[in-house]
Design a protein that fits this description.
By secondary structure, the chain is α+β, with helices and mostly antiparallel strands. It has a single domain, classed as Outer membrane efflux proteins (OEP) (Up-down Bundle), CATH 1.20.1600. The chain is built from 10 helices and 6 strands; from the N terminus they run H-E-H-H-E-E-H-H-H-E-H-H-E-E-H-H. A hairpin with an 8-residue loop joins strand 2 and strand 3.
């Protein structure tokens, strides 16, 4: 009995020490060359600036100063179904890691039985009662690291699922912001289109009056009427787009369409953007992007998977032990026990193990290439987002100038009409041009905000590390 306890205690202490060393592989390099700065920011630009010490903003939506957007973001984080699915995947991966880790420890089972009866000659033709209790233990001694590698693989998979959940959150918050700015743009476009329609209807009425007086032709009337009909046809399209964006926002926050319509459509003016946006360096962005970390952790798990496949070439050593108590009525009890060891060495398997190693090696190459691809796409996303924002900033400034010029033209046309130097038609045309320019600028304002959201998203902003998460 003392021998059994001593052997089991030593074995258990050894397996605890082994289990503590089964951490996933450390951070792996992608071998992709990363420039110290962004190509799109090589020239001085007043709208964007890179700071090598700047960190990625994870609560970037607060920069817009919009309480409605803040409320939608908070509700999406709490209730979005895609995010909840990603959290469930983390729980599954954590359970799988527990299964893999359990193989490092001994398996102990207990059994008990009791019976009463006449066993013939065995019980001297008398009715006796018999009972026994046994405890069996078995342990695969992981001398060659197979189970350690499987545990490390499961740990890296768990870390990749955590990063994947963060990537889902980054994409979710960006989609909420984009749809919210679409709502504001559609609302503004509907207002401007209705104003433009009213101006065109006034123009049509004027031309019809001139036709009756013989100062215009039926061609002018038909052309003006066609323009009115064309403008009227734009309003249903804009309203459908508005409804689609509002419905999408309801779904993103985890509610049926119509649940948050009142809050979303509440009047809300957009705050002017900051004159200059500070961008983090490429290396900082890659470190912050959860999709890059997820790909890196998948590559790390493939390294451990190959180590586990290679360990199948070596023997499997197992230790067993048992201890029991037996008793029969009228007879003395016994305490059977025993310890043993076993070894299994693959000898002939027709290349099965070698093929498993080759398959694991191929999966490792795939994971590494996927890691490199993810890094390249992350750099591409940021460069494209920076370019779009810079170009839209220039476009927005030109549209602002056009609005100012059309506004001045409308004022001059009004003055000349009052002084008798131009016709009412010229005034209406100038007003129509002003409304069209204002519509273009409103669309550009929304595009500018969506492009800024793309920068924050490309930088990997928008996730928060949750409690209990594992870091590489």
């Amino acid at each position: 009995m003392r021998k059994f306890r001593t052997s089991f205690s030593v074995a258990f202490a050894a397996v605890v020490l082994v289990a503590c060393a089964t951490t996933p592989p450390g951070t792996q390099s992608s071998d992709v060359p990363v420039a110290p700065s962004w190509n799109r920011l090589e020239k001085a630009n007043p709208a964007l600036a890179m700071n090598a010490n700047a960190a990625v903003e994870h609560d970037w939506w607060r920069n817009f100063g919009d309480p409605t957007l803040d409320a939608l973001i908070a509700e999406a984080i709490a209730n979005n179904k895609s995010l909840q699915i990603a959290v469930a995947r983390i729980e599954e991966a954590r359970a799988n890691r527990g299964i893999a880790r359990s193989r490092l420890f001994p398996e102990v089972t207990g059994a008990a039985s009791a019976q009463r009866g006449n066993q013939g000659f065995q019980s001297f033709d008398q009715t006796v009662s018999a009972a026994q209790v046994t405890i069996d233990a078995s342990w695969e001694v992981d001398l060659f690291g197979r189970n350690q590698a499987r545990t490390a693989e499961a740990g890296a998979i768990l870390q990749s699922e955590e990063a994947a959940m963060q990537a889902v959150q980054v994409a979710l918050l960006a989609e909420v912001a984009r749809n919210y700015f679409d709502v504001r743009n559609f609302e503004q476009q509907i207002v401007l289109t209705q104003q433009n329609l009213e101006t065109q209807q006034m123009t049509l009425s004027l031309i019809q009056a001139q036709l009756e007086g013989g100062f215009s032709s039926d061609f002018d009337v038909q052309r003006a009427a066609a323009q009115v009909s064309t403008t009227e046809a734009q309003i249903p399209v804009l309203r459908a787009g508005l409804d689609a964006a509002v419905n999408r926002l309801n779904t993103l926050v985890g509610l049926p369409p119509g649940s948050r319509d009142e809050m979303i459509k509440a009047p809300q003016s957009l705050r002017p953007l900051d004159p200059q946006i500070v961008v983090a360096a490429p290396a900082t962005v890659l470190a912050a992007r959860p999709d890059v970390r997820a790909a890196e952790r998948r590559f790390a798990s493939s390294i451990s998977a190959k180590e586990a496949a290679t360990a199948d070439l070596f023997p499997t050593v197992s230790l067993t032990a048992f201890f029991g108590l037996q008793g029969v009525s009228g007879l003395a009890g016994t305490t059977p026990w025993g310890i043993g060891a076993g070894l299994i060495q693959p000898i002939l398997n027709f290349g099965r193990i070698e093929s498993q190693i080759d398959a694991a090696d191929a999966r490792q190459r795939q994971a590494f290439l996927d890691y490199q691809k993810t890094v390249l796409e992350a750099l591409e996303d940021m460069e494209t987002a920076l370019s779009s924002y810079v170009q839209e900033t220039t476009r927005n400034a030109s549209l602002a100038s056009a609005v100012a010029q059309d506004r001045r033209a409308a004022e001059l046309a009004q003055q000349q009409y009052l002084n008798g130097f131009t016709s009412l038609l010229d005034v209406l045309v100038a007003q129509r041009d002003l409304l069209a320019a204002e519509a273009n600028q409103a669309a550009s304002d929304a595009a500018l905000r969506k492009n800024l959201v793309a920068i924050y998203t490309a930088a990997g902003g928008g996730w928060q590390e949750g409690p209990g998460q594992t870091t590489p």
